[in-house]
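pinging the channel bc i need a second pair of eyes. not urgent but kinda urgent?? the chain im working w is below, pasted from the shared doc
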Amino acid sequence: MFQRFEYDKNNPLYAYEFISDNRTSYKIYKPLEKDKRYKWMFSGGSQADIEGLDQLNLNGDVLVLTKSLKDCMCFRLLNIDAISLQGETNKLDSELVNKLLKRFKKIIINYDQDEEGIKNTLRLNKEYSFEYFYIDKHKDLAEFIKQEGLKEAKIMINKKING
């Protein structure tokens, strides 16, 4: 099935490509779409698609597990590696965790501080003993950056990660 999407400068559209097990899928994002049913669209994606995985450095001190591709991109602006599952309720594969822990000294969870985010943060903390933190004063890192600025976001995140 082929679906056509139109965009212009007042209604941008972004496509993210995932390649997994020799198959390609896309996640389409329309940030200004009023109808939430059409804000995100998928073409053949699965829970196994890990957002941000292909953009990671080879190794590092910290990897943040966050809740969205948008937040992965925001962490990247701060020079911090981040990945996201396709949803906060999705299971984190233990084989992937083992591979990532060979590349990064620690994984830290940063989900939203709402009911679903807290529940799944605590589930992952219990399962893997990952540290976690929440964003101050705002829903997520993208909102924090928009309201407080990149410099303040870097200060806040470095305090969270480094104690």
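so The longest strand covers residues 14-20. and The radius of gyration is 16 Å. — does that match what u expected or am i reading it wrong
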